[in-house]
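Incident review: delayed structure delivery

Summary: a single-chain prediction request sat in the queue longer than the usual turnaround. Root cause was a stuck worker, restarted by the on-call engineer. No data loss occurred. The affected request and its eventual output are reproduced below so the record is complete for anyone auditing the incident later.

Affected input:
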Amino acid sequence: MSGTAPTNAMGKADQMQSGLTRVLQNLPALRYFHTVALTGSFRAAAEKLNIAASAVNRHVRQLEAAIGLPLFERRSRALTLTDAGETLLRRVTRILDEVAMTGEELADLHRLSPGHVRIGAHDALAREMLPHLILSFASHDPHVRFTIRTGRAPELLAHLGGGRLDMVFVYDAPTDINIRVVREYALETCAVMRHDHPLASRDFVTLHDCSAYPLALPDDAAYLNAFRKRLAMCEPSGCLPFLTTNSFQIMRDFAARSDLVSLQTPLPAQLCPRNPALSYVRVAEPLARYSLMGCCIMTDDGLSDACRGFLDHGLGILDGALA
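Output delivered after worker restart:
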């Protein structure tokens, strides 16, 4: 008989150890026990956890059964922790603190995980608008990487549809069932010229005024055709542009060195600093006053967190500058 007592004691210890292992793996039950211990009652714990008091009581009893010891002394008006309850509370508090810290660290890693944003844009928008949007975004989220592709609207929209770009910024985006125009902004047409040009001091000019000087126009077909039609109405004899190019910067370079007038839709100075040697005069023509700049994504909107974050950030800046 004397030889069996240690064996029975060891068996109980092993059983308790096994039960404790199961307890520590039951995180919800530990949370319930912890809340009951802190609030002092099953009812208060249930209200804090937003579950039924009977469910809280059941989980605590399951813990007690697994451990083989009572955790609370249940009195008529209050709960008091037993020695086992005090011991478990100390351990559980540490466990839950570690779980919370781990969750915060993982959340930080998720927020800081490198993302990749692929943007397509008309050359002028890529040069003049994207640096401001990207650098301001990178100042608070420096781990995101960017790829920029420039080109004409049809080419960029084809890359968007093929999954090679996440978003595009283009002029006069065409209607497409698979592409969603998230935002459109009306950019005012200006005549850009040297600050000492004869037209530079005016509040506005007409196309007829501009046609007296060499003209530079964007070579985008829709944009150019609209101006040509209007110019034909102003000048029946016809007026062909001296220069066409897909670069607003090239047009401004020519304007700064000659009497040439460049017709373009510049961005506000707060988005793109302007050359102080040039004047920007509003064009007062109903048919050629504005051009629409659109931000496009795919209709299914399968954007990553990094893309969505940049898009929201960029549109917020553009709304403030162009709305």
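Verification: Residues 83-112 form the longest helix (30 residues).
Action items: add queue-age alerting; document worker restart procedure.
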